[in-house]
Amino acid sequence: MKKGNEMHVCVYCASSDDVPALYIEAAYTFGEGLARRGWPLVYGGGSIGLMGTVARAVHTSGGRVIGVIPQTLLEREVGYREADELIVTGTLRERKQIMDDRANAFAALPGGFGTLEELLEIMTLRMLGYHTKPIVIVNVGGYFDPLLAQFERIFAQNFAHERYRRLYAVKADPDSALEYLEHFALGAEIRG
Ligand code: AMP
């Protein structure tokens, strides 16, 4: 990543609204932090759940929102139509490819199966050398602790080499996650 690059951060997070308030607050703080830094949000284009919260926070703080949504989800009227750019794709796979291409960093906030699937896929792609973009897990309230414990088991029993710990960073809150990504915006290289 070259010095002075604008960060386009792809955010994976819950489509559910019915989650504890601390996660909704964290999603809002993350969106505000993106906008404050002038970093566009790239995300799944939904208006619901933490996804909608992040997008609205970015907009409220004067930032830019790029949503990438498959036609079927848009038709179910959950698309965030206020997005500055709403890219409508034919399939879920096309959508993921565009999200990957448009972003130069990835952040996972608390979420369900969709979020986990997106996080694990982007980690696997980095492990296999398809990209070298930073990935940060925003471990609000320790939400991801059981997943991180599973990662430890993966390393301990040699299902993945210890060096793959460097595939991702874990930060306890939105501000530390954004500060971590700032490091890359300033031109630091990912090692390992
Ligand atoms: P989940 O964690 O299961 O709620 O899934 C959320 C993730 O999957 C998001 O990061 C989105 O990219 C995608 N996703 C799931 N549901 C939707 C939806 N209704 N609209 C847009 N994207 C969605």
Describe the fold and architecture.
The chain is built from seven helices and seven strands, in the order E-H-E-H-E-H-E-H-E-H-E-H-E-H. It is an alpha/beta fold. The protein has a single domain, classed as 3-Layer(aba) Sandwich (Rossmann fold). Helix 6 links the parallel strand 6 and strand 7. Helix 1 packs parallel to helix 2. The C terminus is likely disordered. Adenosine monophosphate (AMP) binds next to helix 2 and helix 5.
Give me the side-by-side strand order of the main sheet: 4-3-2-1-5-6-7
CATH class call: Alpha Beta
In the CATH scheme, what's the topology name? Rossmann fold
Gap between N and C termini, in Å? 15 Å
Task: Give helix and strand order, one letter per element, not per position.
Answer: EHEHEHEHEHEHEH
Overall CATH architecture? 3-Layer(aba) Sandwich
Structural class: alpha/beta
Indicate how many domains the architecture comprises: 1
Rg: 16 Å
Spans with pLDDT under 50 lasting ≥5 residues?
188-192
The total count of helices amounts to 7
User: What is the number of beta strands?
Assistant: 7
Helix percentage range: 40-55%
Average pLDDT rating: 93
Beta-strand percentage range: 15-25%
Describe the global form: globular
